[in-house]
Known about the structure:
With 202 residues, the protein is mainly α. The protein has one domain. The chain has helices at residues 5-22, 36-59, 69-99, 105-131, 143-146, 149-167, 170-188. 30% of the residues are buried.
Amino acid sequence: MGTGIYVVLYWAVGVFCAILFLGEELFPQKKLERDWKRTLLVFTSLLLVIFNAFIYKNSTETMGRPLDYLSMLVFGLGNGICETFIFIACFKLGESWMAKYTDKKPFLFLGGLLIFMAFSGFIHGTFWINELPPHLTSDPEKMFYKAFFMPLQLALAISWALIYFLYRDIWTVAFLHILVDVSVIYSIHYSLFSRHIITAGL
Length: 202
């Protein structure tokens, strides 16, 4: 049995990042104006989220675990919001670092994207790979889908970084992240509240 305590501690880091680094951006006083370019960017990112859910579902297995609806709700909201706070804080760190050398927006964006993606790769390669249960499919017929996974992660990261960089819109990024995390729970049947050990041949 597990309690997901490390996940909750990770979310606490996200809340800390929000308080320390995001400040007024969390609750902006100025309402975002309607902009067709922003609408197109968000819509494109939403399509990427949907395509990512399809690819992820076809690249993973539940290994016989039951679907935990409470985890889907709690993890979707908790991780979608708190990890977004960490991602945005990392982006701002990279942006600030690049600002020491130039004020050109493309370079500021690249600086933020670099640190954001470096942290994302680190946390998924060290923490999530150990926290999530076995889930990668071994079905030869589904190997085709795996080729799309990493390019999709890159496209999602760029689209989310652009939404924040151009519009300082944290909550749209969080919403898109929530959708991704809900699709993860649905695809692999991960539970925050229990660890189901599947044994075969017994």
